[in-house]
Amino acid sequence: MESGTGLTSEQQCGCACSGAGSAAQQESSLRWPIAAIESLLDLPFADLIFQAQTLHRQYHDANGVQLSTLISVKTGGCSEDCAYCPQAARYHTGVENQAILSREEVVAAALQAKESGATRFCMGAAWRGPKQRDIEHMTGIISAVKELGMETCATLGILKPGQAAQLKQAGLDYYNHNLDTAPEFYGEIITTREYQDRLDTLEEVRSANINVCCGGIVGLGESRTARAGLIAQLANLDPYPESVPINYLVQVEGTPLHGTPELDPFEFVRTIAAARITMPKAMVRLSAGRRQMPEAIQALCFLAGANSIFYGDKLLTTGNPETESDLALFEKLGLHAL
């Protein structure tokens, strides 16, 4: 376990003291047992934030924030049943299907993002996984964006053997593939893809020496234990992801999760802090849901260790704070772009 977390010996032990058999022993052998992360989430708010901020300063520029811009290169018509997603073909959400964008369209968007201050350009496609012709199209786009001097990231779904290596050869720096939630809650959110499918894709990415961008969504109706379970899954990857996006559910009418009781925003801040403490070297990103957060909550997230945001007025199909609003908030908080 990383030093400097301030956990007591009881918290570090997690469930090892229960003596409940092999399951408990397996849990206690992890770098971050779920019980230890639950203990973090249970701390008084000020104590938790202090621990997270202290550790954040050991590894990162305390006031620096990395800016990423996300574009949908292929929208709608996805065959999956992710209960939060407006791009699933089976839900009626008003999202229009859009064929894959041309290289010229994507490069133009990347250039605009660079001129606005973004250093990483992320490209997402709504499908279960890419066919070989899709990989060939995307490798051309990745190479062109890379030539602009930007970091490149792609989220293209499940990868087949060999596809990650092709993306790496084209110049891909990061591959995003979120776990979404804890394994125990996963079946409540998605039935068309197994949890192991996600882990297998992450292994393909690692094998190709591409940086891993992997996080999840909170506010799906999960318990605090499930949020701890998500953080545990991420923190116990070997190595843990270089980039960890934490999404606050954006409820879209027509999806099964529309109408889910909203998560208390302070619980979201706690989740950010737990991610920072358990994955101290990672970039922890405020992702979807920032538009519905008051500035004060965003400020607490930065205090809790978030040091990356999606930058621009749209995330795939949902809204995001406008560039001017983000720059104004940075000015108020004394933050600067990395």
What would you note in describing this structure?
- The chain contains 13 helices and 12 strands.
- Helix 11 packs parallel to helix 12 (295-303).
- It has 338 residues and is α/β, with parallel strands linked by helices.
- Helix content is 40%, strand content 15%.
Search tags:
single chain; alpha/beta; 40% helix; globular; disordered N terminus
Question: What does the average pLDDT come to?
Answer: 88
Shape call: globular
Given helix and strand content, the structural type is: alpha/beta
Strand proportion: 5-15%
Helix content: 25-40%
What is the N-to-C order of secondary-structure elements (H for helix, E for strand)? HHHHEHEHEHEHHEEHEHEHEEEHE
